[in-house]
Amino acid sequence: MWRYCLRRILQLIPIIIGVSFLIYFLMDIAPGDIVLLKMGDNNMTAEQIEALYEQYGLNQPLPVRYLKYMGRLLQGDLGISQATGEPVMDMFMARIGSTARLAIASVLVSIIISIPLGIISAVHDGTVIDNVASFGTLLGLSIPNFWLGLVLIIVFSLKLGWLPSNGDDGTIKSLILPAITIGTSLTAALGRTTRSSMLDVIHQDYLRTVRAKGASEKIVIWKHALKNAMIPILTVAGEQFAGVLGGSALTETVFAWPGTGRLLIDSINGRDVTTVTGLLILKTLIGSVIILIVDLLYAAVDPRVRARFANSGRRKKK
Amino acid sequence: MKRVLALVLATIMALSLVACSSGAADNSAATQADAQSATEAAKAEAPAATEAAATEAAVPEVEYKEEVIIGTDTKVNSLDIQENCAIASGYIYLMTHEPLVHYYEGEFFPKLAETWENKDGLEYTFHLRKGIKFHDGSEFSADDVLFTIKRAKENPTTHANVKAFVDTIESVTKVDDYTVVFKLTEVNNDFLIDMSKTGSLGMLSEEACAAAEDGYKYGTGPWVNSEFFAEDHITVVRNDDYWGELPVTKKVTFRLIPEASARLIALENHEIDVCIYPDASEYSLVEENPELDMFTYTSGLNYIFYNVDQAPVDDPNFRLALAYATDNQQIIDGALGGYGVPATTTNSLTAVSFFDDFESVGQSKYTRDLDKAKEYLAKSKYPNGATVTIQFTTGQREIISQILQSQWKDIGVTVELDKTDSAGRAAAKQEDKWQAYLASVAYTDAGNSFSETFVTDGGTNQMGWSNARVDELFKQCAVETDEAKRYEMYKEIQSIIHEECPAYPMYYALKAIAYNKKVSGVKWESRGVMEFAYAKVEK
Questions:
Q1: Residue B406 — very low, low, confident or very high, per pLDDT cuts 50/70/90?
Q2: What 3-state DSSP class applies to A1?
Q3: Residue of B nearest to A257 (CA)
Q4: Measured by CB atoms within 10 angstroms of the end CB, which terminus of chain A is less buried, N or C?
């Protein structure tokens, strides 16, 4: 298992090289750069412009800049933001707390809504209940986050006065509305996965055996069926978590949530190459680690996977 | 497996329990803290209150909150007052930094200079206030004035408008620790107004700037920069050692809530006290709400800038054809929901140099007149019409471009839309690859303020337009002391611009600042910047 982990971590190296080069390249071909932005609509002399390019190290060709960046990255230095002059790592650390809390809460909301709905759909496959449940999860996906966020604010902050309308003051209260906004948009994928995964196992022989034993339907579904349907559900939930952890700019904008999503968008608009690259590298890293953890969790939920680990010392395809 | 499931469920339950309890704990802690600080505040205010009671007997005592929270729409990237001329940053600079003189509604007041005198318009002597301390503890003296101007001249990131102004200062000399002499390269009637801009000429501490890279954040004002988290909030706290009148409020927080509707809701919900720029479509919500009030004003002048080096907008007759094909009111109704004032000339509505009576000089105002438009088109190099690409950056300007598209179609001009972001615009400008661009410029009331757009290589002269007569007139205006003669020259300038139309004036946007009626003490500054230094909120 350790060898497996090590291999997965080593696989990250080419991914990060690829990601960082792609960002560097794309940001370079995007029109405008940070110096032109600093100039704004004002006229500057050629010397002033030259001085600014030199200050930001942009007077060198792309490959040189990229190699210099990678050299620093190897030493664990994500560089200094060109827009704010702060270390990218500090900017990230100042925001990741808010983003992580929102991500955890959103995925929890998604799980709480979609797993029961998915199971109900599967159990009542093809009936009106199935259709209503599927419609419900689909609705979550179809409603734009921006709109849902505002409606939630109007109802729960303005009309009812129960919850704050914006900001992250560190309490669960301020977390509820943004988490519901993001969480509901995740329910469609997770609900559908739960449904199809449950359908796969629900008709299998061993469940008939369980029923024959005289177990109640509740036990059959929640204990025996769900356990076996868990792997795809876990995969989707893990991917969703990794995704939301990357930040969600729209929801963060509506709720004035100080997360990494808005920082990333602002940095792209500001052509702050160092920050964009740094943030996306961190996002890639975190995402990969979470997916690795999810893969390892397979073994925890599924004894068959565990058995394979034990037999061969490495994971085979399921 | 049962165990895993049970564990997961238990964790969820535990989390939700923790959630509830921690929420409750936080709440009670907050109220406790509030109560505590309130009593502290009451104690602190007690002597002041008795004093007040002694002088003005029987005035019912009004209690104010410790903190004023202002919801803003624009991210402030830097606290460096010389780097940034944006209005959003102006709010903060006005509280933390102070210029030598203060300009308010046409009058000058002493600030860091107690008195000043002016010799033949070229030499200004300022006598500085003694015993003033910067927020870092360093003492304010003549050296800091010299340093502030020097830094503005030499720092490559100094904003172009600031740079343009300090370049008109030939030298600053120190006579003694509290006397400085400014020598100008030429007479500038607006010199004191320019010097009063906090957004650029608040005094910086030489010592603080030498000691720390962000030493520019220390000023002498009644407020000290405390927390800076650009995407979330900027907080200033009261400078208890301030030399002037102490504010009642102890802390002012600028909270960035980028979405306009969410910002207004936060105001309605009492989470913020002031909401900067609610969306025009929601002004009625403010008007209907008995708790709220709104301050509206006309802000920056919105232009169609033409690149006078690019066909087909290189031809003045073609530009005039477009001018007479344009209906400003339709733009205001269609894109701004009616919240705007049609512009008639290329100057600020309130500037002393404002002139739009073009009939008096044998011209006609720009109004939609298709016959006239076609006449100009026939006279132009492009009598059969042409294609014009309009570049813009915001959604609202996209609608304006679409309206222009339909208006100009009537004279056979095709419009292509080019939506870009600020960086894309900057690149297009640098490479000179654009034809028309929508943008606004905010001028001050100073007579020469609009020269920045129309003199050769002026700060906001995007058009590449150059007119020797206009350059000359602006120069003369700066030195002319006879108001009537000066105004005649401003008339001529605006009439020349009107005839050539390098930039077409569309409208002044009506902007608004909504606030809770319990807020008082906010002062209006020019360009739509409000001064929140003495803002307070009744409890």
A1: very high
A2: coil
A3: B232
A4: C
Q: Which two tokens stand for residue A193?
A: 């996965």
Neighboring chain A residues of B423 at a CB cutoff of 8 Å: 30-34, 36-37, 269-271
Tokens for A123, please give them. Answer: 């159990």
Closest CA to B179 of B222, B240, B130, B230: B130
How far is residue A77's CA from residue A68's CA, in Å, rounded to a whole number? 11
Determine how β-strand B387-392 pairs with β-strand B414-419: parallel
Task: State how far the Cα of B474 lies from the Cα of B485, in Å rounded to an integer.
Answer: 12
d(CA B368, CA B373) in angstroms, rounded, equals 8
Residues A300 and A290: their CA atoms lie apart, in Å, by 15
Question: Does the pLDDT at position B113 exceed 50?
Answer: yes
Q: Containing H/E element for B45?
A: helix B2-55
Q: Could you tell me the two tokens for A243? A: 């995704």
Say whether pLDDT at B455 is over 70. yes
- Residues near A297 by beta carbon (within 8 Å), at least 6 away in sequence: A234, A238
- The predicted model scores a pTM of 0.75
- pLDDT category of residue B388 using cuts at 50, 70 and 90: very high
Q: What is each CA distance from A317 to A18, A301, A309, in whole angstroms?
A: 26, 16, 11
Q: Which amino acid, one-letter code, is at B343? A: A
Q: Which chain B residues have a beta carbon less than 8 Å from that of A119?
A: none
Q: Is A33 on the interface with B (CB under 8 A)?
A: yes
CA distance A252 to chain B (A): 9
DSSP 8-state assignment for residue B70: E
Chain-chain contact of B259 with A256 (C-beta, under 8 angstroms):
yes
d(CA B519, CA B270): 12
* 3-class SS of residue B100: coil
Residues of B in contact with A95 (CB under 8 A): 231
Q: Once rounded to an integer, what is the mean pLDDT over residues A128-156?
A: 86
